[in-house]
Structure formats: structure tokens, C-alpha cells
## 1
Amino acid sequence: MSLELRSPAKLSPGDRVAIVSPSFAAPGAYPAVHEQAMRRVRAVLGLVPIEYPTTRRVGASAADRAADLNAAFADPSIRAVLATIGGEDQITVVAQLDADAVRRDPKPFLGYSDNTNILSWLWTNGVAGFYGGSTQVHLGAGPAIDACHLASLRAALFTGERLEITEPGESEDFGVLWDDPAALTDAGEREATEAWTWAGPARSVTGRTWGGCMEVLQWLLTAGRFPVDPSVLAGAVLLLETSEEIIPAREFGWILRSLGERGILAAVDAVVVARAAASSPEQRTDSTARAAHRAAQRDVVLDLVTRYNPDAVVCVGPPFGHTRPQWIVPYGGELTVDGEQRKIFADYR
């Protein structure tokens, strides 16, 4: 891949980390879950969480949220930036961010979903990040931090080690609603997971990653916030996942087809699609319907990637998206997708 990317320095215990709400300020709407997350940042990670004026301010303007992000990126005492959650309007924030600040002092940014906006913006400005992590979802809710999430969080922030991305064996599409006190102590309804699906040649691919939430990628491409020449993704690993909006497989396919027409699918060497969330508090479905949704999305992936790039290694199912437990994975860092051994390794340098 021709784009040069810098990997931010790792942290030490006692470092200060920014806790920001670049989209929806969930901590203001559900403070009990947020406060438990902050306790875990201190006790489990040994870090000092620093909140900003809009971290808990529901309805804060894009300008104010951008100001908080710029302050966090520019402050040399802040050594990482953690998003509380995603949302749907971060695209209005990114245009107001200070690229010079992140280039002067690159620091890890962690988020997913609507945070695809910031991660892709960092990527285009030469700074790698990490896809995954939400203080509200993964640190604050439930009885504890899931083991695979904590392992990848530590690797992203502290150790920089290489980890195999494995299947936790269970999954939930959403947890206990945050206005219920049980959200602090109980996980959601988890079900057994299916085996990952592999396709393409039996070869191993190692490449830098780009991608994110499928719906947000569509917005980014519409807004012209991706390099004109898709050859910047030559040899890359494309990461894709879908949100809690649960778009139909047909719509997912339309977006994926557009990525193919843009030349993105032909440029990459591997495509990894996360286990799809198939239900939500607003759209509850039974296990049969959930399995059917995931299978339909999988089939669309296999059809379209094969059509546009039969040489790409494809894996569908690793949990780095909107389901939980969630692995955090490199964004702009390296992922190895081994179609022969049918394993995935992430380098958290």
C-alpha cells in the first residue's frame, strides 16, 4: 500500500486518556453506565480518564465536539483518545478537525460505527488507529469487560503485540438497556456463534487495513472523503461491518457493489466482514430470523467479492463490529488473513 501511515506510541500506566463523545453523548443520557466505565478505566487499565465539555452534553454542536477533539489531539499530556460511542452525524464534525495536531503528536484513537469518520480521516492524514471499542458499550455495561475485548484493548494501548483473532463462541446483538440498573451487572442474551466462512484462494495475506461501518463508508464516499485513486489500497485488507440499523442484505450488496465499481474491491488482497448484528431493541427477531439475516449477508459478500476480485481472500464472521464480545482490530495497522490455515492475526504495533 503506497500510503505512509504512522503508528502512535504506546501508553504507560498512569497516563491520561481523553474520553470524548464525537457523535452521541451517551454518558449524559445514561450516566450510571458511563461512570462504571470510568471506574474500570482507572482500576483495570490503570489510566486516568479525562472528560471534555461535550463528553456528557447531549445535543452538543458539531463545532463544540470538534473543539474537544482538537483539544485532546493537541494536548501532549493526553496519550490516547477513546470514543464513548458512535452515532450518526460525526461526518459534520470531521471537517472541523485539525490535521496538523494529529500529525505533530499521533496518539491512538479507538472507536467504531460512526467513528469510521474519524478513523478514515486519521488514515488519510497518515495516522493509524484502532477499529472497535466504546467506553459505554464495552467498558461500562455488563458484569465485566469481555476477555477478547480486554486483550485487544491492552494490545492496542500498551503492548503492541500480535494476537490471533479467535471466536469467543457466544454473541449478543445488544445488551441490557442502559436505563435498567441490571445493565451494570448483567450481559445481554447471548447465543452460540456459527463457524466463520472462508472463500478465495488458500493463501496468506498481510496488509494494512481500511474500511469500517458499511453505512458510514457510503456516506464518506458520497461526501468525497476518500482518495480519488483506489490504488492507495493496493494489497490492503478491507474491513466491513454493519450497524444496529440492520440494513437488508440487498442494500448491503448495493453498497458493496459500488465499492466494486469504484475499484476498491479489486485493489485489496483480502476482505473481512464482521458478524452482523441481526436484531436490536427496536427490531427484535428470533434466532431463526437472525441466522437467516447473517446468512443472506454472507452470501452477498461471497458473490460480489468473487465477482470483482476472485483472488481476494475472504472471511465472514469475526466479531469486530456491532456484536459483543468484540475484538478491537488495527485500522491502518496490519492484519494477516490466512486463507490456508483459516486464521486471522492482528498486529497492534
Note: The mean pLDDT is 97.
## 2
Amino acid sequence: MLFDYKAVSAEGRMTYGRIDAINLTDLEMRLRRMNLDLINGTPITHRSLFGAQRVPRLELINFCFHLEHLTRAGVPILEGLTDLRDSVEHPRFREVMAGMIESIEGGQTLSHAMDTHPEIFSQVFVNLIRAGETSGQLPEVLDSLTESLKWEDELASHTKKLLMYPAFVATIVLSATFFLMIYMVPQLKMFVKNMGQVLPPHTKLLFFISDLLVAYWYVFLALPVLAVVVVQAALRSNPLVRFRMDEIKLHLPVVGSILQKIILARFANTFAMLYASGIPVLESIRTTQAIVGNLVMRKALERVEQSIREGQNVAGAFHDAGLFPPLVVRMLRIGESTGGLDKALLNVSYFYNRDVKEAVGKAQTLIEPMLTLFMGALLGWIMLSVIGPIYDVISKIKT
């Protein structure tokens, strides 16, 4: 059972958190092992409808940053985590850190304690921490993770920047069109028909669509929602559908090339971190397969792993996979021959990160006029279809 608790530390500092326990007695014992005295505990009888609450990336960045400085200063991991737990405001993350402290007090390592929370700490994160513990370079690994998380946050903001404006404009255009079709066009329809004018085909088409929207507006509103639900269910239940969808994403005009660059930049950055931390090439490639977020790229990395396992060199394996651009293969070949594979991969990540920024800027300058043109054409068609017959009648009256 999950408990919300209020406790006091040995220094007299109030601590609030959330932790799993069998009952209040078990809760008190667990907190005592964390050097906390229970004041009160309240069982939580229900969980969120949408599952476990996610921890924002900013919280993970702050966690890595502060833990790096604490460990570099010689503060033991357990004490550092305790201090961080008391300063964290996010309830879910505070709960996770309390569980980690308990696990470490039970004799587990930091990486093992993190591995029990896969929804918070990815396999890449855990493997890097484990490598840092083994090599004695935990502060350096935490510093790399901090920079990597900051980079991912910046990359996510570029992606949102690319998608938010078109989504916003499309919503406004569709809403305005829906309003015109439902409210304005029916009012003008009777007026235009009563003039006895022969209606042009585009006006008939407009009135037909308007009649459909008026009669079945609920169907048109429900169809997009139903389509999203069906597609999401198909993606979750059928790997082939997800594979085809990921393949389509990579071949979309404008967006597809940017998406591929984002995936390659994330792969190169993660691969470089893993390899630089002392993790073997095969294990590094296997770990990166989970973070690319695209089944097509994942299958390609699986082929790369198999080729290397069969004795092929790294650059040759990536070349034969057929999905990686010449820049990636060339950098891998140089890094492999010079013994600086991690530096070569970081260069790949840098180049693609720069390309993503430039591509997002170019895509925005291209998308904005296209959306404006589309919006003008749509609204122009509606106005022309309604005003055209009226103008024809007025022209005949004047003559």
C-alpha cells in the first residue's frame, strides 16, 4: 500500500514524502531505517487513472547536477540522496528517491536501486551509472548525463517549436471553417437559392458539404477522435502497423528528414556517452536500440549488432545497414581507425544537432506561408461560392 507521510529528521527538519509499506508499523520501521521519525501517515487508496506520474526532465537534470557536485565533494551517496530527497518538491520523484535510499540501505548499489524504477531511469541512464560505479568515475558520468539531458530538453523544444505553430494554425482554420459551414453558409444558402440563379458547381459543392455538417456535425467531430483511438490501439497491439507508421514518418516531406536527424543525433550522443564510459561497443549498440524511438531505426541497429557480432567492423556494419548517411559511416570509420570512436560520435551528434536547428528554422519559414496560402484558399473558396451568385445577379440587374 502507498502512504503519504510526514516525518522529522534527526536534525529536526520536517520531511514529506510517499512510500510503499504494508501498514503503519511497517511504514514507521522503513522511515526509521532512513533516519526519520514518523509523525503521521495516510494510506492512498487509489492510483492515477493514467498510471504512474511521470517525472519532468528538469527534475532529472537538477538531480544529476546536484548529485554530481555532492559526490565530487566527497559526500557519500546515501547522504547526498537524503539531502536531495528533502529538497525535491515533485511528489513522485520524492517517492522514488525515498525508495532508492531504502534499497541502498539494504545493500544495493545506486544503479541497482535506479533499475527498480524503469519508468523514471532509462536503461541508458542505469548502464551509465553502473559503468561510473565500476570505474570510479561517477561524478564524470553524472556530469555527462546532465549535459545529455539538457541537450535532449533543447532537442525536444526544437521539435515542439516545429509542430506547435502548424497545429495551432490548423486548429484555428478548421474551427473557423466549421463555424462558417454550420452557421453562416446555411443562412446565405436560402438567400442565394431564392434569387433563382443557376448555381455553379463549386457553390453546389459548398452547400452540399454544409448540409452534411449541419445534419451530421457530431459524426465529423467524433471521427478524428475515433481515428486517433483506433490508430493508437493498432500501434500498441500490432508491431507491423507501428513499423509501417515509423517508416512513413521518416519519408514525410520536410518533417521526415528533420525527424531522421533528431534520431541520429540522439543515437550518436548516447552511443558516445556509453562507449566513453567503458561500455563495450556491442552492449552500447544494444542499449541505444531502446532510445531511438523508431522501429525502422531499431531494426537497423539490430542488424548492425548482428554484423559486428559476426566479425565485421563497426563502420562496415553501419554502412551495410543501409539507413545511416555517409557522414555517420565516415565518422565511424575515422574514429575506429584512430581509436577515438566516442569523439567521432560526438562530432556526428554536434553536426546533426546544428542541422536540426537550421532545418527547424527553414521548415518554419516554409510552413508559415503554406498555411497562410491554404487558409486563404479555403476561406476564399467559401466566400467566392456564396458571393459569386449574388454578384452575378447584381451585374444582370445593372445591365
Note: The chain has a mean pLDDT of 81.
